[in-house]
Amino acid sequence: MENFTHPSMLLITAYGQLNNIKFFYSVCALIGYLMILAANTLLIAVVIIQKSLHKPMYIFIVALAGNGVYGSTAFFPKLIVDLLSERQTVSYISCLTQVFCIHTYMGCELTILAVMALDRYVCICYPLRYHSIMTHSMVYYLVGAAWGYSIVLFTIHFTLTVRLPLCGNTITKIYCDNWSVVRLSCIDTSVNNIFGLFITAALIGLMPILIIYSYIEIFIECVHASRETRAKALQTCTPHLVSMMNFVADVLFEIFLHRFELKGLPQAVRIMMSIQFLVVAPLLNPMLYGLKMTEIRTELIKLTTRNKILIV
Asked: What local confidence, expressed as pLDDT, does residue 87 receive?
């Protein structure tokens, strides 16, 4: 036990090969973060302000946009500070905070997408009962359940991580994640690994299965529906499917990097693969829903036009 330590500061080493262009990357990161904040905040504001959008589907979109802001805020500010610093370090407590925020963001993204698939399933397969099933109280219950499911699961895993004594102090990624902390432990981490596989199955395995099942049922229903119904289903379901496929692919990239030492890949490529789920999804979702869905796009145009008139 004498070699067990709990370092107050951890060293982040993934920036080593970026010294010459760190300022450029910091500007890109700042622009990206501001774009994510602006796009998601605007989407949330439009849905809240316009009473015609106070419907289950749009409330779920607000939850998804809010989760994107949450995940981005857990990642970008620290990234920008590190890129502008001579030495990249993070306190143990701050590292654990980032671990918790990033992993709960990841889990909530998947559970919210699953709830959105359920909403589309009920709307298209049971249109006459939709409003009696998807009441406002049910919608808020589903949003709470989506967050609660992920947070409870990861809190258990997080507790298992916090208990570990550490012998090392080097994080080999540009942000703190659970595996980066666990691998520094001095003791056996089999319990962490087993529970980590369980969480992977309960989130990255189960949620896409539920979404795919919902869309299989929707597809079967649309086969026998009118052309107008199929067109409406395609309009509302396409952004959701794109969001789900993009996010699951990004998360699988991250898991793949964890499990295999891809030394043949350039450092910059490994970094880009590891941060896609934190960058692409929060930026892509408001663009998909804001531009693809007619009602949101219409209300957004009305809102911006009204503001221009007031300014003039």
From this structure: 83
Are the CB atoms for 154 and 107 separated by under 8 Å? yes
Q: Are strands 170-171 and 9-12 parallel, antiparallel or unpaired?
A: parallel
Mean of pLDDT values over 238-253: 83
Q: Give the 3-state secondary structure of 227-239.
A: HHHHHHHHHHHHH
What is residue 222's three-state secondary structure?
helix
What is the DSSP code (8-state) at residue 205? Answer: I
Choose between 84 and 224: higher pLDDT.
84
Structure confidence at residue 273 (pLDDT): 78
Q: Are 68 and 36 in contact (CB under 8 A)?
A: yes
251/177 Cα distance (integer angstroms): 13
Tokens representing 302 are 């009305």
Distance between CA 71 and CA 69 in Å, rounded? Answer: 6
The distance of Cα 223 from the centroid of its chain, to the nearest Å, equals 32
CA distance 141 to 134: 10
Structure-model confidence comparison of residues 213 and 233, the more confident one:
213
pTM: 0.89
Amino acid letter for position 158: F
